[in-house]
Write a structure and sequence with these properties.
This is rRNA accumulation-related protein. With 213 residues, this protein is mostly helical. It has a domain at 26-166 and 183-190. Helices cover 41% and strands 6% of the residues. It has helices at residues 26-42, 45-52, 60-77, 83-98, 106-122, 128-138; strands spanning 144-149, 185-190. The protein has a two-stranded parallel sheet. Helix 1 (26-42) packs antiparallel against helix 5 (106-122), helix 3 runs antiparallel to helix 4 (83-98) and helix 4 (83-98) packs across helix 5 (106-122). It is globular and about 65 Å long. It starts with 25 loop residues before the first helix and ends in a 23-residue tail after the last strand.
Length: 213
């Protein structure tokens, strides 16, 4: 699968002289989608912590870039990929590549945001949602979020879950307003106690912590 490098900024296409805004060409929409996936994954607190603390090893940054390319390739190879398939893919990569078991359901918001961006770009031919996403990524250090990283168990104290784009508002239209506060700055709290491994009924050890490769 291809690796997605950090995107460079690009604005919507406009007619010469500042006239009517023209729909971006298909190749530009595709580039926006690929870059938008990178932004959304980079803004995912679970992945942010995993990369920052090198849970995927010394090449954790490269793994994040590969992750974005892998999601993009998934839609190319399997255009019928639905929300649940994407959620499972996100969780599987987080566990396989970063030894991270996401338990706050934030993967649901990431998947939903990717689908909203996809609809706005490829169905509505509107690059505005990508521009908003890019701006929020650039302003990510100006906001705050509470998130906890635990070695085991469910985090009951994490009340401020990350949310991406809301899929629809009451009128059935895509609602981008809720995404304005979707990119907070990370303030993690680490619990260092390490309990005994938890084994389920099938004899599998539950992996909920992290380890460096």
């Amino acid at each position: 699968m291809a690796s997605q490098s950090a995107p460079s900024g690009s604005g919507p296409t406009q007619a010469p002289g500042g006239g009517v805004r023209l729909p971006p060409p298909p190749e530009k929409l595709r580039q926006h989608f690929d870059n938008g996936i990178w932004y959304l994954l980079s803004l995912w607190p679970a992945l942010h912590v995993a990369v920052r603390d090198s849970w995927g090893g010394p090449d954790s940054n490269d793994k994040r870039d590969w992750f974005a390319g892998a999601v993009s390739d998934l839609f190319v190879q399997r255009p019928d990929t639905d929300h649940d398939d994407l959620v499972l893919f996100l969780l599987q990569v987080m566990q396989d590549e970063f030894d991270c078991n996401v338990e706050d359901d934030s993967e649901e918001d990431v998947a939903r945001s990717i689908y909203v961006l996809r609809k706005r770009l490829f169905e509505d031919k509107d690059a505005g949602s990508f521009s908003e996403l890019e701006q929020r990524w650039r302003n990510r250090g100006q906001l705050k979020m509470n998130i906890q990283v635990v070695d085991n168990g469910t985090d009951d104290d994490d009340e401020d879950d990350w949310q991406g784009f809301d899929e629809e508002d009451e009128d059935g239209d895509i609602n981008m307003e809720a995404a304005e506060e979707a990119v907070p700055n990370l303030v993690p709290t680490l619990k260092k106690e390490k309990p005994e491994p938890e084994v389920d009924d099938d004899g599998f050890t539950k992996v909920t912590g992290k380890k460096k490769r």
